[in-house]
Amino acid sequence: MNQAENFTFRTAELVIELATPADYAQVGELTAQSYFAAGHFESPDDDYLQFVRKVGERAEQTEIYVVRRQGAIVGSMTLIQVGSDYADIALPGELEIRMLSVDPTAQRGGIGRAMITATIERARRLPGISAISLTTGSFWHSARALYESMNFEHVEQRDWTVPGTDIKLVVYTLTL
């Protein structure tokens, strides 16, 4: 994706900017810990949690953003376009959000909303992008409520099940 290094989004308390290689280990741990703390996995050593810790590899094909509050990383997300090995659901013209995570001690403080708002701004600056897509757990009610409050629509025909599991994931999109 182009000109990612020039994109920064700010609120009164937060700065959302492209992660640097020095941030990668912390981003991986934050993502794994937030997913585990939410009860999505039985073990902190789950294969998927090992996958999300490989931030350096992911950064070669995606944009990884961190959220800083008073200099400390309190959240992160990965933005992906169709064609990347990391795209799960992105269609042509969509910017996909994956691995959105907020430090468990900082949740419910507007960080997730700020990341979605930043993604909307980023998507509007990318040529050929006309929508944003994301996947969330079918039972992650607070996440779903956030997306719906920001005008994302559940696209039921795109819902899917994680291969080899009974975990149902739901797809939301926002047309820009």
Walk me through this protein's architecture.
This protein is of the alpha+beta class. The chain has 5 helices and 9 strands. Strands 1, 2, 3, 4, 5, 6, 7, 8 and 9 form a 9-stranded mixed β-sheet that branches. A hairpin with a 3-residue loop joins strand 1 and strand 2 (14-18).
Features:
9-stranded mixed β-sheet, single chain, alpha+beta, 176 residues
Gist of the model:
It contains five helices and nine strands.
Uncertain segments: none
Largest sheet: 9 strands, mixed
Q: Which descriptor suits the 3D outline?
A: globular
Given the structure, what is the number of helices?
5
Estimated helix fraction: 25-40%
Distance between the termini: 18 Å
Order of helices and strands: EEHHHEEEHEHEEE
Tally of extended strands? 9
Strand content is 25-35%
**Protein structure class:** alpha+beta
Report the C-alpha radius of gyration, rounded. Answer: 15 Å
Quick check: average pLDDT?
91
Note the topology.
Elements: E1 8-10, E2 14-18, H1 24-37, H2 47-52, H3 55-59, E3 63-69, E4 72-81, E5 94-102, H4 111-125, E6 131-137, H5 141-149, E7 153-154, E8 160-161, E9 168-175
Parallel strand pairs: 5-6
Antiparallel strand pairs: 1-2, 2-3, 3-4, 4-5, 6-9, 7-9, 8-9
